[in-house]
Amino acid sequence: MVPDPARHAEKEHALTTQERLDELHSLKQAARQGPDPRATERQHARGKLTAHERIELLLDKGSFQEIEALRRHRATGFGLQEKRYPSDGVVTGWGTVHGRTVFVYAHDFRVFGGALGEAHAAKIHKLMDLAEASGAPLVSLNDGAGARIQEGVTALAGYGGIFRRNTRNSGVIPQISVMLGPCAGGAAYSPALTDFVFMVRDTAQMFITGPDVVQTVTGESVTMDGLGGADVHASVSGVAQFAYDDEESCLEEVRYLLSLLPANNRELAPVTPTSDPVDRRNDALLDLVPQDPNQAYDMRAVIEEIVDDGEYFEVHAAWATNILCALARLDGHVVGIVANQPSSLAGVLDIHASEKAARFVSTCDSFNIPLVTLVDVPGFLPGVGQEHGGIIRHGAKLLYAYCNATVPRVSLVVRKAYGGAYIVMDSRSIGTDVALAWPSNEIAVMGAEGAANVIFRREINAADDPDTMRRQKIDEYRTELMHPYYAAERGLVDDVIDPRDTRQVLIRSLDMLRTKHADLPSRKHGNLPA
């Protein structure tokens, strides 16, 4: 039986101090243990930890300060009045991660399946308001069955309060959602409003309508994992940025991400001293990037060679793999890296790649993280599917994000940059602060082959040997317009650098830009492309 202080009200005057303390400890212990010891066993049998166990993994040891541990709901009807458990299915409080304050709430699946009711929501609202007022990150550990049906519309209103606070705090404090169990219906929109979503395979699912509803309405048969599991959202829908095999490794990576982020939008990300020299030569880059513009290579190897100690934290690694987004450090300072990936779809920009990069650029700009863009792009992906899917408006999202960003921005053309995709990838014309290129760069409207076929079509068709004429015209176009210094001669590239000096030049450029200040026009907000 869970202790209820109300039952002892009539004899409060007779309780000694020690008895009061014993009762307090009993109540808090009951809240931690849950309504039924077997519920904890069932939670562990599913491969899941309890709310307190998860919080202890996330936060520094002994740093958690819980609030409203004794909160109970006040609903009646449907038997709820007989089930008034302490904490009401959610654990809220704050602690530290690497010594820095972090607010956290965790659904307790053992109480009402983690379902949200009025009191449950009020606890989360209070915590979110504290996080906003304190200017500290908010982490939600999600494992709940949605709205508490027995409480009706008050439960739905509770979600509305969460969504409103998610939106108000967007770009103000980092918000991280960790999916450790089911998250269905309207509840899924809170994670969608946050900055980063982590999921654990096999135990976490997110969807608006479940498999049963899907089958009833559409006739499609699908499992919960097949509909909204971790790998689906990490590689197909793009809803989740990260997917892990177990809760321990997932929460450890959340801790690492927090170490790369500032506490709020008024601060800079933490600087970590490094023994990696600023002037370390990047000799390996001469061999990593092929001279042939059509030969694939892995841009991750380039990033590893440039950043501190070869360490970076990739975001959305399994989705839209033709573009890379990662957080890393250069001379101890956090930077956001956006890079085309020639080993996937030749590094073209398409709908998903544009959305992925735009979101990442916007996130970095929100939290004062400088941007480094590594360019090797042949253009936008052609095709009816892309055009009908809205590549124009989706590509415009990336363009908008870069043009709107006021953080320090440095771009480097690694090999080729063709057409509108070159402009979109943070070119000088849209506001990059420092535009660099390697001597192997080709910046042009399109590749030499395509350009020659358009410009010299009549000469080629009229020639006695069209193939020979085509090759001659391709060489002519490449010589006249695609040599490495054409853009530099016109001020569109600030410097053509030795690839071996890349790390040093990037660090010096970002150091120069550390005090950059840029104001946007006075406005309520921009109108982001749909």
UniProtKB/TrEMBL annotation:
Biased composition (Basic and acidic residues): 38-47
InterPro entries: AccD/PCCB, AcCoA_carboxyl_beta, ClpP/crotonase-like_dom_sf, COA_CT_C, COA_CT_N
Keywords for this protein: Transferase
GO molecular function, one term: propionyl-CoA carboxylase activity
Keyword Glycosyltransferase in record: no
SUPFAM superfamilies: ClpP/crotonase
Pfam short name (any one): Carboxyl_trans
Residue ranges of every copy of the CoA carboxyltransferase N-terminal domain listed in the record: 14-273
Name of the protein this chain belongs to: Methylmalonyl-CoA carboxyltransferase
